[in-house]
Amino acid sequence: MNKYLIASAVILAAFAIPACCQNLPDGPGKEATSKVCSQCHELGRAISLHQDRAGWQATIQKMVSLGAMASPEDFEAILDYLSKNFPAAEPPKLHINSARPIDIEAALTVRHSQALAFVAWREKHGPITSLDQLKDAPGIEFAKFESHKDRIVFDQPSVSANSGPAPRY
Q1: What DSSP element (H or E) covers 94?
Q2: Does residue 10 contact residue 16 with C-beta atoms inside 8 Å?
Q3: Using CA atoms, how far apart are residues 1 and 3, in angstroms rounded to an integer?
Q4: What is the DSSP letter of 95?
Q5: Where are the domains of the chain?
Q6: CB distance 59 to 51 below 8 Å
Q7: 94-153 has which CATH code?
Q8: What is the DSSP string of 46-63?
Q9: Angle between the 101-108 and 112-125 helix axes, to the nearest 10 degrees?
Q10: What is the dihedral of CA 13, 15, 17, 21, to 10 degrees?
Q11: Across the chain, which distance is largest between two alpha carbons, in Å?
Q12: Is-contact 56 79, C-beta < 8 A?
């Protein structure tokens, strides 16, 4: 009877690893990722994060501090695999001419007062086509806006017959 239990366990283990790898994209580090990460939690939790390389490195270091065990080579393969296959999502663009103050505050990491000051300036001066227009705008820290220029879109706001002024938050 023990022979059958051992044989069943070996067969089950042989199928368990490939089954948990099925949802992962192929590539170097897939097997190590599946093996190490699934020791403590389901793989879906591990891959749901979508981080940049530094984020994955921090997560792996945290997992090691919590007891994850693998060789340094395996951890490097896991880092490479996760960084390549589950990268951080690109932050959404901010449509500066129609954005609400709360959206500006969050996207550009500015104080709420600066977001309100920008919206007031925009309402007074109309849509902007360039960040240079904000250099002398009162209450706005231009460097903060400029540091996120790659996220800013200068499209014209759409106007409908029923739309009023943008809500102030």
Answers
A1: strand 94-95
A2: no
A3: 5
A4: E
A5: 2-85, 94-153
A6: yes
A7: 1.10.150.280
A8: HHTS---HHHHHHHHHHH
A9: 120
A10: -170
A11: 85
A12: yes
**Two tokens, residue 66:** 């919590």
Report the DSSP pairing between strands 152-153 and 94-95. Answer: parallel
Which amino acid is located at 146 in the chain? E
Under CATH, to which class is 2-85 assigned? mainly alpha
CB contact at 8 A, 24 and 1: no
All residues at 6 or more sequence positions from 95 whose CB lies less than 8 Å from its CB, including other chains: 153, 155, 157
Along the 169 residues of the chain, how does pLDDT read in single tens digits? 554 444 344 343 434 444 445 579 999 999 999 999 999 888 887 788 889 999 999 999 999 999 999 999 999 999 999 999 999 988 889 999 999 999 998 888 888 999 999 999 999 999 999 989 988 888 888 998 899 999 999 987 665 434 445 444 4
